[in-house]
Amino acid sequence: MWPFVLYLFTFIGNVRIILKNSLKNSAEFNRVFTNGRSFANRLLVMYVCKNGSDINRLGISVSKKVGNSVIRHRSTRLIRESYRLSVNMFNSGLDIVVIARAGIKEAGFFEVREAMLHLAKLHKIIRADAIS
What we know:
Blueprint: E1 8-12, E2 15-19, H1 26-35, E3 37-40, E4 44-50, E5 57-61, H2 69-86, E6 94-100, H3 109-123
Parallel strand pairs: 5-6
Antiparallel strand pairs: 1-2, 3-4, 4-6
Helix pairs in contact: 2-3
């Protein structure tokens, strides 16, 4: 899906961890769609499936129904940034596919982040020590 590798930087103490794993081809997306579970809210649909490794992989899908290319790219950036800021809260070993719905074009960053965390709580993929 993305022609580039997604780099996410997180800081744990003084150690910088580079995560460059994302779902890239349709076979990986289809595996999550067929084997995973889904929950949805007004802005997003989230599919989650275990991947058998110790890292999470994120895939983002924004269809043309959402809007033109500027709106689709903005939606992708909002979802990616929401995940990047919350990556330490998620359990590891998951493939996560986030699909944007048409309502995301009017949403701001904090609404998208709250929608993503809401779906993560429904999936029960938030670490117990991250819940405040």
